[in-house]
């Protein structure tokens, strides 16, 4: 343990940093205290508290925190610590206005930390970057839209522009946005899902015909076993812990598979449970906890399957009931024999070499899977952000299908999404690979031709910008420059653009790493009143379990000059597409009109308005649950990648010159006080880190073996075979319960280490959970909080 006290230059606040293990349950009084502190910090004590009471209520707004569904039929409050932070951050009384920009040049702002930038408050009016003075200056909305229109219409081809979406965007805004972008003439739709659950969308699309989860909250009330792979709900989906703790109390076997022993997966004190709070009691979450190596899950899943296979062989020989659900398999699936052959041919030795578990542990896992009649698999970024992200999802799906766990009550697939409407944005057609069916329908409804050529996602857009094939970058939300891999290259790419424009609520670094010209277009947040010609408007969102419901903010907007996201799209479309037959602004008078158009395009959304105004909205049924498989074969498909190919691919990505050195695998993840690139604070309470972010979690034996000591500082260098030097500086070593050879650190500070080329081949999701690195001892920084920007421009 070590305490440091420093004055952080950029924020001029006294910051203490310390490493001190946290022994309490997740949630509980610690969470309530943190809510109060955050409301105070954002100076929103009364308004914030009222705002919170409206979160996730039938008549309130959808919490912008995460995509975990709301508990229905509850009259108590329905928010969590980290949802409260997200809300307080949006409802802040601080402002970033014209005066702020007049006082700070872009060069000065660039030197400040991401924490500083987002802490300055809400953006209030459209701003234009004036390169001559290096300042953002006010611009009217009309002039801003005209500038974008001029730049877009001057392009040789619409494919020279790219349109990013972050997952907070509502269904209504997303639908109009894709309609506008396609009317303009391109399918270039980089999306935050490209860095998030894209492997899930692709993987489940292959196997069960639609890349979404199959379970609802009700299934958690009927299940026997819940396996949680690579997900940290205590921080990222705290409301999920209430569901898990209820399941635990029913005797459900909850099993976590995670290289780190996450606090929230061990014990939880439910702030909504009066008895637990008063008695300071808590409920365990996981009955069993397995710590594979980073990236070891693929071998774990293949190993589980191989055990099932061998037991099935034995059962058949002795005339007992089969282990696999043969009736289900015969009726519903294709390629089962192929994968049996592959599993049979995979040597145990190779499996055990990669799991990071002991042989008895793997056996126990397989046994628990076999013994449960109803199994739910939950997973997060620990499964998707790998070079073999899609292969991971195929294996999860193989196991579920092999025992008939799809379409059975209390069983199924539960990918836990991140952004509160990331799933809905995809449903609304934000997709660089649109299906012909979608384009046909859009053409039919809007009587306009739409481009058929598939577009670019995140990784490909960055490359295209760097190579000047793309000249205009437009973002609907998010923080592209920090969320994406290979930070220096991405900065370079954005700078090559003729125009970068961001629709945003808060200032972030993407607004500063701009093209020759740049715009900030400030919009309303979820918590704010959206008044249009027909009165107050609601938007709709789709949560992680395919429930679609309305959201309406009540707070007075942060500034009179803000526009809603749908309004921004409509006004922009009107300027860009002079001859469009679509009445863009008409849709904005009442969002019911947008929803009527959505209903015409998507069969699932028939009678959208009528259904969405019902309390709680409606549920989109996954066709797999009625054994309707939208795959090529019309069946659910078993799919497998040879184990050797998976692990050789990972190993071959790094440079041979380092084979002699100790190479570690680094995962990048979230601290408790951040929302993606937005930092609410500098603590990671459950992991015992306070007041600093540049930390490196490392196994104590590895620390000793490398001749290092805890609290010492190191530089981290990644070693991809392209020979580019990628290094981040001065990370403090924290001795931690993490498997040997594995390291953990926070994103976005570590994004400069991820080579743009290191991604899953099909989903193109950056492998930000699997970075080969070496360590260099270094001196301690002068500012112990190490709050400098993630990557200083060189
Ligand atoms: N408060 C808060 N809430 C959020 C977010 C936030 O930043 N803050 N972000 C939102 C978004 S967009 C998303 S996508 C979700 C993200 O939520 P999560 O999916 O929980 O994301 P991470 O924090 O990146 O890491 C997940 C876990 O993966 C584990 N892990 C890493 N590598 C491996 C591996 O190889 N195998 C296994 N089995 N586990 C591994 C890590 O130890 C960690 O516990 O949360 C959403 N909710
Ligand atoms: N190394 C590494 N990289 C990662 C990840 C990782 O685990 N490791 N995770 C990846 C994942 S899962 C994701 S989803 C991405 C996240 O990538 P993004 O979605 O691009 O990033 P965020 O940090 O969520 O975006 C924050 C910004 O959104 C804006 N914003 C907030 N609310 C609103 C709103 O209502 N409307 C609009 N228009 N703007 C708003 C604010 O200006 C704020 O600064 O990062 C990915 N990058
Ligand atoms: Mo995400």
Give the gist of this structure:
The chain is of the alpha/beta class and 794 residues long. The chain is built from 30 helices and 34 strands. It is 35% helix and 18% strand.
Biggest sheet: strands side by side, in what order? Answer: 7-6-19-18-17-8
CATH 2nd-level architecture of the largest domain: 3-Layer(aba) Sandwich
What spatial form do the alpha-carbon principal axes imply? globular
- Residues in β-strands, percent: 15-25%
User: What is the number of helices?
Assistant: 30
State the low-pLDDT regions, or none.
Answer: 1-14
Helix content: 25-40%
- Fill in the CATH topology of the largest domain: Rossmann fold
Topology:
Blueprint: E1 3-8, E2 13-19, E3 26-27, H1 28-41, H2 45-53, H3 81-90, E4 95-96, H4 98-103, H5 106-111, H6 114-119, E5 122-123, E6 127-130, E7 135-138, H7 141-153, E8 161-165, H8 171-184, H9 198-208, E9 225-229, H10 233-236, H11 238-249, E10 253-257, E11 267-269, H12 274-278, E12 283-284, E13 288-290, H13 297-317, H14 326-332, E14 333-334, H15 336-345, H16 348-355, H17 359-371, E15 375-379, H18 381-384, H19 389-402, E16 412-415, H20 422-427, H21 436-446, H22 458-466, E17 472-476, H23 480-483, H24 487-495, E18 499-504, E19 517-522, E20 531-532, E21 535-536, E22 539-542, E23 547-551, H25 565-576, H26 584-589, H27 591-601, H28 608-612, E24 618-619, E25 636-637, H29 643-652, E26 664-669, E27 674-675, E28 678-679, E29 689-690, E30 695-698, H30 700-705, E31 713-718, E32 726-735, E33 742-746, E34 771-778
Parallel strand pairs: 3-11, 4-5, 8-17, 9-10, 9-15, 10-13, 14-25, 15-16, 17-18, 18-19, 26-33, 30-32
Antiparallel strand pairs: 1-2, 2-29, 6-7, 6-19, 11-12, 20-21, 22-23, 23-24, 26-34, 27-28, 30-33, 31-32, 31-34
Helix pairs in contact: 1-3, 7-25, 8-25, 9-19, 13-16, 13-17, 13-19, 22-24
């Amino acid at each position: 343990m070590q305490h440091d006290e420093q004055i952080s230059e950029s924020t001029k606040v006294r910051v203490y940093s310390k490493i001190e293990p946290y022994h309490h349950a997740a949630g509980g009084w610690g969470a309530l205290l943190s809510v109060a502190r955050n409301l105070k910090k954002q100076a929103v004590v009364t308004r914030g508290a009222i705002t919170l009471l409206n979160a996730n209520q039938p008549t309130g707004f959808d919490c912008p925190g995460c995509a975990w569904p709301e508990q229905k039929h509850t009259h108590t409050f329905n928010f969590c610590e980290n949802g409260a932070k997200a809300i307080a951050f949006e409802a802040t009384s601080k402002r970033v206005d014209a005066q702020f920009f007049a006082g700070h040049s872009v060069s000065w702002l660039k030197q400040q930390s991401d924490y500083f930038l987002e802490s300055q408050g809400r953006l209030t009016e459209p701003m234009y970057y004036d390169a001559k003075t290096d300042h953002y200056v006010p611009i009217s909305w009309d002039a801003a839209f005209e500038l974008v229109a001029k730049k877009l219409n001057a392009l040789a081809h619409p494919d020279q522009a790219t349109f990013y979406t972050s997952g907070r965007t509502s269904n209504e805004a997303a639908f109009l946005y894709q309609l506008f972008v396609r009317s303009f003439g391109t399918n270039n739709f980089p999306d935050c899902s490209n860095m998030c659950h894209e492997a899930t969308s692709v993987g489940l699309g292959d196997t069960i015909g639609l890349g979404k989860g199959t379970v609802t909250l009700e299934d958690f009330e009927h299940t026997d076993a819940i396996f949680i792979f690579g997900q940290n709900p205590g921080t990222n989906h705290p409301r999920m812990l209430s569901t898990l703790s209820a399941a635990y109390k029913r005797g459900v076997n909850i099993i976590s598979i995670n290289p780190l022993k996450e606090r929230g997966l061990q014990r939880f004190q439910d702030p909504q449970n009066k008895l637990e709070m008063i008695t300071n009691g808590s409920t365990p979450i996981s009955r069993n906890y397995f710590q594979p190596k980073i990236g070891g899950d693929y071998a774990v899943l293949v190993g589980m399957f191989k055990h099932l296979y061998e037991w099935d062989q034995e059962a058949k020989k002795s005339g007992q009931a089969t282990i696999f659900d043969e009736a289900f398999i015969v009726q519903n699936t294709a390629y089962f024999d192929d994968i049996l052959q592959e599993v049979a041919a995979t040597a145990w030795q190779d499996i055990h070499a990669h799991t990071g578990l002991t042989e008895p542990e793997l056996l126990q896992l397989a046994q628990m899977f076999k013994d449960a009649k109803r199994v739910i698999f939950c997973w997060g970024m620990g499964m998707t952000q790998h070079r073999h992200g899609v292969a991971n999802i195929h294996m999860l799906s193989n196991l579920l299908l092999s025992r008939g766990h799809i379409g059975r009550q209390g069983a199924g697939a539960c990918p836990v999404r991140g952004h509160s409407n990331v799933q809905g944005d995809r449903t609304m057609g934000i997709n660089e690979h649109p299906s012909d069916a979608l384009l046909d329908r859009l053409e039919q409804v809007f009587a306009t031709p739409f481009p058929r050529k598939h577009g670019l996602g995140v990784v490909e857009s960055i490359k295209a910008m760097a190579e000047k094939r793309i000249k205009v970058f437009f973002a609907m939300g998010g923080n592209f420059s920090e969320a994406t891999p290979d930070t220096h290259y991405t900065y370079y790419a954005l700078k090559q653009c003729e125009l970068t424009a961001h629709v945003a609520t808060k200032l972030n670094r993407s607004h500063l790493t701009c093209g020759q010209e740049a715009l900030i277009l400030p919009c309303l947040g979820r918590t704010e009143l959206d008044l249009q010609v027909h009165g107050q408007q609601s938007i709709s969102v789709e949560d992680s379990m395919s429930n679609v419901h309305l959201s309406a903010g009540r707070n007075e907007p942060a500034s009179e000059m803000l526009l809603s996201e749908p309004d921004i799209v409509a006004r922009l479309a009107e300027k860009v597409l002079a001859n469009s037959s679509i009445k863009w602004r008409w849709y904005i008078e009442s969002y019911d009109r947008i929803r009527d158009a959505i209903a015409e395009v998507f069969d699932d959304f028939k009678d959208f308005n009528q259904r969405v105004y019902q309390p709680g909205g409606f549920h989109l049924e996954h066709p797999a649950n009625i054994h309707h498989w939208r795959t090529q074969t019309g069946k659910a498909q078993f799919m497998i990648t040879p184990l050797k190919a998976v692990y050789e691919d990972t190993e071959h990505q790094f440079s041979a010159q380092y084979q002699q050195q100790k190479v570690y695998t680094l995962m990048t993840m979230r601290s408790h006080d951040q929302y993606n690139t937005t930092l609410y604070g500098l603590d990671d309470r459950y992991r015992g880190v306070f007041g600093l972010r540049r930390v490196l979690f490392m196994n104590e034996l590895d620390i000793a073996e490398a001749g290092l000591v805890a609290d010492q500082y190191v530089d981290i260098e990644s070693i991809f075979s392209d020979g580019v030097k990628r290094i981040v500086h001065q990370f403090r070593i924290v001795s931690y319960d993490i498997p040997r050879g594995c390291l953990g650190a926070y994103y976005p500070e570590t994004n400069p280490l991820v080579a743009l080329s290191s991604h899953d081949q099909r989903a193109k999701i950056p492998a930000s959970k699997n970075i080969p690195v070496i360590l260099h001892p270094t001196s301690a920084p002068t500012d112990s909080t190490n709050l400098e920007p993630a990557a200083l421009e060189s």
